Automatic annotation (TrEMBL):
Organism: Chryseobacterium lactis
Classification lineage: Bacteria, Pseudomonadati, Bacteroidota, Flavobacteriia, Flavobacteriales
Keyword annotations from UniProtKB, A to Z: Membrane, Transmembrane, Transmembrane helix
UniProt superkingdom: Bacteria
Transmembrane domains' residue ranges: 9-29, 49-71, 83-103, 123-143
Protein name as it appears in the record: DUF4149 domain-containing protein
Length: 147
């Protein structure tokens, strides 16, 4: 069975996105809390900064991916466009709802206020896991059997 890549630019952009996103979300984020001498306030501020930068880079990469997919749209299926739509939806939820609310909670915690637990952090983790699955699927679907 021979495979070919639908669009090497899209594949490369998805791979860059996967590497950057998974490093920040699943490696850097939990590890910063393990560093000796790093205080909770510093770790929380670093988290705010890293996720803000990460979501901006992801947005740029998704825009470039959509443009590249549209330029070679004949090789893409509804599944491909569904995956990219889900990724865009999740990123919009994170950028304009989840992260602003979580950032506000961090600011309140850092100012000394005690807060009751919220399920929003769990929703954010679920969104990140879903994004990881969708990006992995998108990479997989960049390959097509040769006819």
């Amino acid at each position: 069975m021979k495979l070919y890549v639908k669009n090497p630019i899209v594949l490369a952009l998805f791979c860059v996105m996967a590497g950057m996103f998974m490093t920040v979300s699943f490696l850097e984020t939990p590890m910063k809390f393990q560093v000796q001498g790093m205080t909770l306030p510093v770790a929380l501020e670093l988290g705010k900064l890293m996720f803000a930068i990460s979501t901006n880079i992801q947005a740029i990469l998704l825009i470039l991916i959509v443009i590249s997919m549209l330029m070679s749209r004949s090789v893409y299926t509804k599944v491909d466009f569904s995956i990219i739509s889900i990724l865009i939806f999740i990123l919009l939820l994170e950028k304009f709802w989840m992260l602003p609310v979580l950032d506000e909670r961090v600011d309140l915690l850092l100012s000394g206020k005690s807060l009751s637990p919220t399920p929003l952090h769990d929703y954010f983790i679920d969104a990140e896991i879903t994004k990881a699955i969708m990006i992995t699927a998108a990479i997989f679907f960049q390959f097509k059997k040769a006819i």
